[in-house]
User: What shape does this take?
Amino acid sequence: TASIVSSEISSFQLNQNIPNPFSSTTEITFESNKNEKVNFVVVDLLGKTLIHTTIEANYGTNRINFNSSELTSGLYFYSISNGIDTQTKRMLVAKK
Assistant: This one.
């Protein structure tokens, strides 16, 4: 037997990018409990902002296909903020 479970998105949540580490592209997903604008930011280890963009998020799961072509190998932090909550994760770029 199979059943369908509906889940209500009750909060804003950022997930770990997959794959991690990566060399060229990775997928970042986050959950939003409403349609809203969110800020996506990538910073280096020194806290320098390298990427800052606004995204139109939809209710539910949202996906960002991130390309590291402008980054060198190293550890970076990415954040999503909806103006109330900010969440941050680490990603490792490993260029060949």
About this structure: DSSP finds no helices and seven strands in the chain.
